[in-house]
Write a structure and sequence with these properties.
With 646 residues, the chain is α+β, with helices and mostly antiparallel strands. The protein contains 21 helices and 25 strands.
């Protein structure tokens, strides 16, 4: 709608148009007047259009002056809407490949045109084909653009642009997320035998009588890890049992190929796009309470100070004695009598031993330089109808930290086991940061009064010192983000190198084979070692899997973030015009990002809001408190825009 408004105003040669003129000019029904009014108000507040004293609208002259001053001219309102970005030919089109993108359809006298959501792309005429009569103005579609063509083909129709369900479909299509399993996969999984015969169990260690249980989130259905701790002479024995997905998903099967294509489960705000079909992820492989399940167990013996003394890896069968949630486990550990009485004595005793061991393991890892930023995550709170009622911080507790520390320990033991046996594998690596990034970080910290003593080769303890120095400051979180941006991203690789962030020499991913493909590959490699078989994965194949899984992991993370941004914009749109208390998260040439106190959401104050002609530009500090007014909640671009309220 913004694009249509800008085009209409540009076609009227600077004339001011009333709300009614714009409604008729866009050929919109009267029932859309309220949406049009809200959009016009938002655009005027953002500075995209000018609202006159008589309540009419026109292009803002300042935009044209700014464009001319910077050597750019607004020959199209699309360039204004998308920040005057230079139009370029995407690399995929330059290489002769077609491109699939989201686009909004707009009706013109010459027919429908598609306005891509990617700001750097031009408009394209639409090849209507058999859909000619059924297109509608303002429809969100997926188009395919072919090299050298000025028109595009609609490949998927999603619904009315700006509506929450339509925009969710758009994200799923935009990121190429799977929308179901093929008939071959469904048939293959349906034929799996759920009954475990003695033949399945004879070669496995039976742990059914041990106190082993799962601890997961309230909404979890795919339980792939169970834990248990017992006291042994002068120390502790920790068992981490992981669902044996490799028993059911045979290498090269239809299910395996589909899992490799997806690489990971994607956890969107209101749904999960799983790597494996539900019969596997939520049933056969899920470690549900009081159900016999096949697992791979990492058994670790620690001395009284938490140092690893011995470890074993073997195929096992377990029967989880309980399904605990993080909040329930934390309540028991905090001494809540009601929570404790609802569980058996063995579970309570095991939990208390877990906390005891966790504290020692964490202390040792932190002593080696392990980094722990503990960034807060947003969680959507929903009412009885499933509507978002608030956006809050996910409250992590000691139970989260216990499970996380135990999984880190198991992953490390497995990585060392595979490397020691001379097998190639996929590792989870986090390389040391680049010197240039660290120098930029040092300079940025110096500007805000923190002198960082980074040596020629940075060590984890150097970063720990900065985190500690910032612990009492109001901009602590922002400083931690600065540090995180200076570090490299963790990736999958066939290289056996230390994990910088965890301060661990050997590390892989083994503990989540239901939702991560690299873990499934690692399980198969473990079986080959245990059964003394020849390796089935060569270096080239493992490298391809590692690289692909790293890419698809980022894709899933981006899609999850965009879903959250969309839900947040939808939640906040009824609050446009409200004033909030915020703090500065980051400062950029184009504006400042802020986080508000009333809800755990963030947005942008554009630079032109506080850089006014004839006045000195306002400067901000990280963590500074500000009062802001919500100007717009943009569903299409999934973002919030604020202005200073004082």
């Amino acid at each position: 709608m913004e694009l249509q408004i800008l085009k209409l105003l540009s076609e009227n040669k600077g004339k001011s148009l009333s709300e009614g003129n714009i409604l008729r000019g866009l050929d919109m029904p009267e029932k859309k007047r309220e949406k049009l009014r809200a959009t016009l108000k938002s655009m005027a507040l953002e500075g995209k259009i000018k609202r006159t004293s008589k309540g009419r609208y026109r292009f803002r002259k300042r935009w044209k002056k700014d464009a001319a001053k910077n050597g750019r001219y607004l020959d199209s309102p699309v360039s204004l809407l998308n920040g005057n970005r230079k139009k370029i030919v995407p690399a995929s089109l330059s290489n002769g490949n077609s491109l699939r993108v989201l686009a909004d359809l707009r009706k013109t006298p010459r027919g429908f045109v598609a306005c891509p959501r990617k700001a750097e792309l031009f408009e394209y005429e639409v090849e209507t084909g058999g859909w000619k009569k059924s297109f509608s103005d303002g429809e969100l579609v997926v188009i395919e653009i072919k090299p050298g063509k000025q028109s595009a083909t609609v490949t998927e129709r999603l619904g009315v642009s700006g509506e929450i369900e339509t925009e969710k479909k758009g994200i799923i299509s935009e990121y190429g997320l799977a929308k179901g399993f093929s008939r071959n996969v469904t048939k293959e999984v349906a034929g799996l035998n759920a009954e475990l015969s003695n033949g399945n169990l004879s070669s496995r260690v039976n742990l059914e009588k041990e106190t082993i249980f799962t601890i997961d989130g309230d909404d979890a259905k795919d339980f792939d890890d169970a834990v248990g701790v017992t006291k042994i002479r002068r120390g502790y024995r920790l068992r981490v049992s992981i669902a044996d997905v490799s028993h059911y998903v045979v290498c090269g099967s239809a299910c395996d190929e589909e899992a490799a294509r997806r690489a990971t489960s994607t956890y969107l705000s209101d749904r999960v796009i799983p790597m494996l079909p539900k019969r596997l992820s939520n049933d056969l492989c899920s470690l549900r309470p009081r159900r016999r399940r096949l697992t791979k167990t990492v058994e670790m013996d620690f001395d009284s100070s938490g140092r690893l003394r011995d470890s074993r890896i073997y195929n096992s069968v377990i029967k989880s004695c309980a399904r605990l949630t993080y909040s329930e486990a934390a309540a028991i550990l905090e001494g809540n009598g009601t929570a404790s009485s609802s569980r058996g004595k063995n579970i309570v005793t095991s939990l208390l031993l877990m906390k005891e061991l966790y504290c020692k393991l964490r202390e040792l890892r932190m002593g080696k330089g392990g980094l722990d930023f503990d960034f807060p995550e947003a969680v959507l709170l929903r009412d009885s109808k499933g509507e978002v009622s608030d956006v809050d911080r996910l409250k992590r507790n000691v139970a989260h930290e216990i499970i996380e520390e135990f999984m880190i320990m198991a992953n490390s033991v497995v990585a060392e086991f595979i490397f020691r046996n001379g097998f190639e594998s996929i590792y989870r690596i986090h390389e040391s940061p680049d010197p240039d990034s660290i120098e930029q970080l040092r300079e940025s910290l110096l500007k805000i009064g923190i002198k960082a003593n980074f040596g020629g080769q940075i060590k984890q303890q150097d970063i720990q010192a900065v985190i500690k120095a910032a612990s009492g400051r109001k901009d602590r979180e922002q400083i931690n983000f600065m540090i995180l941006r200076a570090l490299k991203k963790a990736v999958y690789s066939t290289k056996h190198v230390p994990h910088f962030g965890l301060a661990i020499d050997d590390y892989t991913h083994f503990t989540s084979p239901i939702r991560r493909y690299p873990d499934l590959v690692v399980h198969r490699i473990i079986d080959e070692i245990l059964q003394k078989r020849t390796p089935s994965y060569d270096s080239a194949r493992l490298k391809r899997i590692a690289e692909r899984c790293s890419i698809l992991e980022r894709t899933a993370e981006d899609a999850e973030r965009q879903f959250m941004n969309l839900e947040t914009a939808n939640f906040m749109k009824s609050r446009v015009g409200d004033v909030f208390h915020g703090k500065i998260l980051s400062i950029h040439p184009f504006g400042v990002f802020i986080e508000i106190e009333e809800h755990f959401v963030e947005g942008l104050i554009p630079e032109h809001f506080y850089k006014i002609r004839g006045r000195k530009r306002k400067w901000f500090n990280l963590g500074e408190a500000v009062r802001v007014k919500l100007v717009s909640a943009d569903m299409e671009r999934r973002r919030l825009t604020f202005n200073l309220a004082s």
